[in-house]
Write a structure and sequence with these properties.
Blueprint lengths: L3 H18 L6 H28 L8 E9 L4 E7 L1 H20 L20 H4 L1 H21 L3 H10 L1 H10 L9 H36 L7 H10 L6 H18 L8 H8 L2 H26 L1 H27 L4 H21 L3 H32 L10 H4 L1 H14 L6 H16 L1 H26 L15 H19 L2 H17 L21
Antiparallel strand pairs: 1-2
Helix pairs in contact: 1-2, 1-5, 2-3, 2-5, 3-5, 3-12, 3-15, 3-20, 3-21, 5-6, 5-7, 5-12, 6-8, 7-8, 8-10, 8-11, 10-12, 10-13, 11-12, 11-14, 12-13, 12-14, 12-15, 13-14, 13-19, 14-15, 14-18, 14-19, 15-17, 15-18, 15-20, 15-21, 17-19, 18-19, 18-20
Length: about 550
């Protein structure tokens, strides 16, 4: 039995402990050492995730590189890991983004001004530990997210699905955006508590559903939380759920995933969290942590509750379309750059969930690609926005203008991120959005048509943001703005390169995810709708 998946999860976890235990960063040298150690651990994790993705055989078993260790034997709970194509690409996305986030956040935990007089925070023990805490929390989030993508035990998944809230809470509440107003600390606390309460509520509902599933399964001779055992038994009819029980359990799981995703109307925590967090933490929220919610819809909702998934699919599609239009409309009207990106993400998650519950191979393949492409493009857009905000000290769109004249490279990379967000052909999100719309239209044409208006609105908010911040006369406070530095270019360059590469050649990802998508559709007993063929004429002029 290979221990590759365990190593992929253990390395960032051990790195988090090591980073937190390093000597307090009372000097710049010690802080740099802490950052270098954390960055090194994230690079090792990236290498391991890449090895997992390359060793995965798309033509092999659904779950590969499997590992299982006894955990709580009396309840049939195991530490079981296995990777399918969808989990492999999302774990790789996480591993790519974490070192990028660390580079982008290199100085986010450094001592800063304590007040309007410009004095620095006192050299207390807590102040000296900020750097260690910040980077250790990032590694802890990475470890928990990777476990979630590899977990094949329902209870194991639940534990880490909930546990990742703890480091995210401290990242939001303890390391907020320094461009906030005079009540920034209060706003950060509010955003962190709202994030925690919303997601804890979803997790508690899911816990009740997990327990309910176990009780029903145990009564029928399946006293286990093993995902493969449960899905096989359900598919073969050996484990039978009554219609009411299946619907109730589905809603329990789905509610937790919809909060995390976030799906309208359970989305309201996201703009607060992303607006008050640092740019790097905002990327962790929307590009990494939230993807666990949409991933879990594919793996658990559709796999464990196929009939309920089909029953509730039309309702979920309506909610998704509302989220697409609602998020885009609110993005158009935003005055805060980071909240604009947050509402744009709500719109994009609507597309992802719509693709999942269209229950077509094109829709689900597009939804999986959308998770990856949205993570990359939104990371680029948000991190460049963070660099912009750190220079000007303001998140308000009205405080900018003419940036492209003084910082052309920054403006250019910001434009690429915006064009990717509106799904310009040739950039990565276009492929996934096109597949989602095609896959939805073949089964639900009205839903597909309405969702298309989200593309028009995306062009509106993305281009208006660029026009208002980057073009026109140079505003006061912008004139001396420096362009991107070497470290910042090292952050943006790989994201821009991946956005272009996956826009023109997405085949490596589709080859990995398509077998898992087909397996998911077979679990819900769905096939793609047959295309409408024109009436063919025979050579003798007769029609058939």
């Amino acid at each position: 039995m290979s221990a590759l998946l365990t190593a992929s999860c253990a390395v960032p976890a051990a790195g988090a402990v090591l980073t937190a235990a390093l000597p307090a960063g009372s000097t710049e040298r010690r802080r740099s050492t802490t950052k270098a150690v954390a960055l090194g651990v994230s690079v090792v994790t990236l290498v391991l995730a890449a090895v997992v993705a390359t060793r995965f055989d798309p033509h092999g078993d659904r779950y590969q590189l499997t590992e299982s260790y006894s955990w709580i034997r009396s309840f049939g709970i195991t530490f079981s890991l296995g990777v399918d194509g969808i989990g492999a690409v999302l774990a790789l996305l996480t591993a790519v983004l974490v070192p990028v986030v660390m580079l982008a956040s290199w100085h986010d935990a450094d001592p800063g001004p304590a007040g309007p007089d410009g004095t620095f925070a006192p050299d207390t023990f807590e102040g000296r530990r900020r750097t260690q805490a910040f980077f250790a929390l990032i590694l802890a989030v990475e470890a928990m997210v990777v476990v979630s993508f590899y977990a094949t035990d329902v209870f194991l998944f639940y534990v880490f699905f909930e546990a990742m809230l703890i480091p995210m809470y401290f990242l939001i509440g303890g390391f907020g955006d320094r461009a906030g107003g005079p009540d920034a600390a209060r706003q950060r606390s509010y955003a962190a508590v709202k994030f925690l309460l919303y997601n804890l509520l979803g997790g508690l509902v899911m816990l009740a559903a997990v327990i309910g599933l176990y009780v029903i399964a145990q009564d029928q001779g399946f006293g286990t939380f093993d995902l493969q055992t449960l899905t096989s038994a359900i598919a073969d009819g050996k484990l039978q759920l009554s219609g009411t029980a299946e619907k109730a359990l589905f809603l329990g799981f789905f509610f937790a995933f919809a909060v995390k995703a976030p799906l309208w109307p359970l989305h309201t925590w996201l703009p607060n969290a992303m607006g008050e967090a640092t740019a790097g933490t905002a990327v962790l929220i929307t590009a990494v942590v939230d993807k666990v919610g949409t991933f879990a819809m594919l793996r658990f909702c559709l796999g464990l509750f196929p009939h309920a998934s089909k029953t509730f699919a039309p309702v979920i599609l309506v909610l998704s379309v509302i989220g697409i239009i609602y998020g885009a409309l609110l993005a158009v009207g935003q005055k805060d750059i980071k909240r604009l990106v947050a509402y744009a993400s709500i719109s994009h998650f609507g597309f992802i969930i719509m693709g999942i519950f269209a229950l077509t191979s094109q829709g689900q393949s597009g939804a999986t690609l959308y998770m990856v492409n949205h993570g990359i493009s939104t990371a680029a857009w948000m991190l460049v926005a963070g660099f912009l905000i750190s220079r000007r000290g303001s998140r308000l769109i009205a405080d900018y203008g003419g940036v492209q004249k003084v910082a052309p490279v920054l403006a250019g990379t910001f434009l690429v991120g915006g064009l990717a967000t509106l799904s310009l052909p040739g950039l990565a999100p276009f492929v996934s959005e096109f597949l989602v719309l095609v896959g939805t239209f073949t089964r639900y044409p009205a839903i597909g048509i309405v969702a298309t208006f989200g593309i028009v609105l995306a062009a509106l908010y993305a281009l208006l943001l660029y026009q208002r911040t980057m073009t026109g006369p140079v505003k006061a406070g912008v004139g001396g703005m420096p362009d991107l530095k070497v470290r910042e270019l090292a952050v943006v360059a790989p994201l821009v390169a991946l956005t272009i590469l996956l826009g023109v050649y997405p085949k490596p990802l589709t080859d990995l995810v398509n077998p898992s998508v087909n397996a998911t559709l077979s679990q819900v007993h769905e096939t793609d709708p047959a295309p409408a063929h024109p009436v063919a004429a025979t050579s003798g002029g007769e029609q058939k």
